[in-house]
Each structure stands twice: as structure tokens, then as C-alpha cells.
Amino acid sequence: MRWRHPPVYRALVDLLTMEERHIKVTYRLDRATIHELCAQLEPDLMSAICHPTGIPPLVQVLSVLQFLASGSFQTTVTIASGMSQPMFSNVLSRVLSALLKHMRSYIVFPQVEDLPTVKGDFYALGHIPNIIGAIDETHVALVPPRRSEQVYRNRKSYHSINVKMVCLADQYISHMNAKFPGSVRDAYILRNSSIPYVMGQPQRHRVWLIGDSGYPNLSWLLTPVRNPRTRAEEHYNEAHGRTRRVIERTFSLLKARFRSLHMTAGCLYYSAKKVCQIIVACCMLHNLALRCQVPFLQEDGPVVVVWQLWSLWTVKKRRQKKRISTTGTT
Q1: Nearest Cα to 129, choosing from 202, 188, 65, 208?
Q2: Less crowded by CB within 10 Å, the N or C end of the chain?
Q3: Please, what's the largest Cα pairwise distance for the chain?
Q4: What backbone phi and psi angles, to 5 degrees, belong to 183?
């Protein structure tokens, strides 16, 4: 009987030999920050290397970072990392679970001692005093569950998760909620989040969040004046817009840094629960990049390729469905 050696995983990625710029473009973090992240997640990822075919924690983290950053299909990432598609699917679940255990240390609402600095940074944007956060919603596309498809269809007629975020003046995400389907209104998400409780605490008296006209005008939430009639109201709306636009810039930076959240990469082909985990993970990594002052670098080429792959795949699936409906065969 011929003895067969078990297959041994051989990594195709060597972080030590890669140029620093290439690391930042591919993984959205620098070398030192990636090692810091791996050290934090290693206890939860070490179980994967007990088997001779196990994947080192560093390779697990790098493959997931590349997937989140590129917005490519899993097969594209598996070719680059040298692992099979089922193997990467398990790695993705493992890394997301490990990362989300540390959410409270990555996404932190301003504490009382931080308020003077936070208010000063916002005042520099639009000269409105006592602002400690800009709030808004953004949508991340997904393939909806069959049983509740309509619940995930948003007002722009595609299926999504409606993600509420609060950011600071430096685009740091201080609060987020990614558990509601796309059809849910912004005001409902706000009422059913922890923000009303947090902003209602005595130590946050006389400070405000700033949001658009989709929100109600609350004692702690400033919205623009509808149909301004005086110069003072127009001036307030102009200052309000200059201040609030930081949340829009935050959404743009987040989705540019992690293309898996952007529409140009197509929708996420995962369960709604895993899509929510991916969104939270991207927000955490966005804050990590800001904290470690990692500049955002991007090459234009891969985005076009990913969109072309998505378009070709969509056309192929449509043709296949049409052929099945007309002939009854695949």
C-alpha cells in the first residue's frame, strides 16, 4: 500500500519581501499595523494551525484584508493566497469572529474628557459650537434572503443593509449599527439604537449630533432648516452643510478603502448576518488605519477588472436562466 503524505499548505505571500507601498495598496494597512493586528487576533486563529495543513495566522489575516480591500470574488483572493475556496471561506468566518470580539476597543464614542477636543475639531469645519458627531446612513448591497427579499429592498430598488454611522471630524467612526435591512427608515434605526440613551446622559448636556433632514429635530440632534426664509437661517444651513459633509466623506473613504462595501464590486454573496459582520470589520479596520496614520493608497486598475468580472458573471447567469426557461435544460 502506497503511503500518501497529507497536503501541506505553502503560503504564496511573504510580507517581509513586499514593498511598503504595495502592502498599503493591497491590504490597506502598513506592515507594522498588520503585525499588531495579527498579534491581537493570534489566540483565536492559532487553532487553525494545529493540523499539519493549517494556515498561519498572518496568512489568514492577509487573505481577509485583501478580500475586504479589493472587493474581488473569493476565487480571485484564493489564487493570490494559495488556498482553496472552501478553505478561504472558513478563514473568512474565523477572522471575522476573532476581529469582532474587539469591536468595543476599535469603535468608541467620545468620552467626557474627549469632548473639548472633539467639539473644537467640529467647530473648525463649519463654526457651529458643541458638535460631537455627524450622523447618517449608507447602504451596502447584498443578495437578500429568499423569504424576506422585499424587506431588504431600499428606496433605490436594490437590496441592502442600511448602516447607521456617527463619525468625528477626522472621519473616525465613533458609533455604528449594521443590523437593519435596506427598507428600514433612518429615523426608525435611530430610535432603536443606543444613541438616544447615550446622548441623553447628563454629562452630554448641551452637546449635539448633526444630521440631515431625514432625521427629526431633537434636543441633541441638529438638522437643517426646511425652507429657510431669513438670511440667518440660510447662513445656518450653509454652516450645517459644511459640518455635516464630513460623514459623507467618511462613507466615501470607507468604501474606497474597502471595495467589498462599494457597489462597483457588486453585491456581497453572503448571508445577511455575515454581511453585517463584514461591514463592522471594515469599520474597525478603517479606524485602525486612522489611528496608526496609514495613508490611503489605491491603484485604479483592479477596480475596473472587478467590475468587468461582475458584469460578465451577471450576463452569464442571465443567459443561463433564459436558456433554462426556454429549453428546460442547463
Answers
A1: 208
A2: N
A3: 92
A4: -80, -10
